[in-house]
Input
Amino acid sequence: MKNLWLFLVRYNAFFLFILFFVFSIVLVVRNNNYQRASFFNSSNAVVGSYFKKINSWKAYLALADDNQKLLEENALLRKQLQGFLAIDTNSQIQLIDSIEIDRYDFTVATVINNSIHQKSNYITLDKGSSHGVHANMGVITSNGIVGIVENVSKNFSTVRSLLHPDIRISVSLDSVSDAFGSLVWGNNIDSRYAMVRDIPNHVKAYVGQPIFTSGYSTLFPKGIKVGHVIEPEVVSGESFKEIRILLTTDFSKLHHVYIVKDKLAEEKVSLEALNKDNE
Amino acid sequence: MNNNLISNIIRFLILIFIQVGLFKNMGYYSLATPFPYILFILLLPIGLSNFMLFVIALLTGLTVDAFYDSVGVHAAACVALAWFRIFFHRITLDIDAQESLNTPSWGNMGFKWFGTYVVLSTLAHHIVLFFVEVFSFKNFLNTLSSIVLSSVFTIVLIFIIGIVTYRRKSRLAS
Output
């Protein structure tokens, strides 16, 4: 007994190491499996408010860029508005689907923490459950998509960025054609590029072709531009091919984003859940 | 002793703030990311008991994890670093030095000892960090290059911090 005790004391550093290391690994594995809202993440109040403070200083550096972006967006909206005004309503009877008109709500949020250099990147926003945000909502910016809300606290929410190995978003190759695939980050190194997988081989893609969201999920409205094709065929010889695209979202300069709220999401999800029951 | 405690707390706060406010946004794609916050664990008093050292290392790791949204990854790496630190001190310092509560800084220990200490400790920390983060031996070369490049980045930053805060005191080891 005494010898055992001496042994433990002699090598206490090793045993303590095993103890603490196993504890950490358990934390890692548990977090990976369940992705549950845990205390130790950046939607917690202390960490969130620290990032908010830092961000309030950093915002000044990005003012010029932001103004430019807002101006461009204004110009685009004005152009679309002009298009509507020009329609001669006398010439034909207009049928407008009133459900589609205000199906989506957009909440403006500010990015208060962002990462692009990790293997799994997350973004923290300054809107939380008290602003009507909840998990599994899409996040977009004025010129592309950003990610999906993962955890929500009262005033903050964390977003799983597109630059995350476990994210898949349904996209279509053209706003009209029905060829669709899933968008993944893929190469895990560069924040500017992503891959579109599971495109059938017979579909021809060309360099510069725009990629849009398909609208099949409840996360993003149909027809948001995601990026442009730069390498039409990365894998060939199989029945599906991969396409490398250049993202329109500049993840290194994210500042203002919109959280998409789909009012029909619940209805669609519960209807689709019926199908699974019948299988 | 009291003085030592306060300076360690201040060092902790400053290093963590710089890490999550500045160094988190630096990097060469995702290949090289610097983690100079480990300097805090390296500079804890030499005579600290093993248990205390592990507890402090774990808490430091969890704090950084909170900002990186990576529960447990940095904690595991910091615990491994603490173990390496105990091992390194045991084989390089004599008994008197091991008992004292001095800070194992550049000024106290001399460049040769401090340099070896920083380089080896950083490698130990980064190897555990990146392998726990990836959690597999797939893309082994990719992980390995991340480890080497990030270590170089971290070591350079730690030496820069060392130069800025250099104060020569009595030599404990040469």
In short: Residues 206 and 232 of chain A are 6 Å apart (CA to CA).
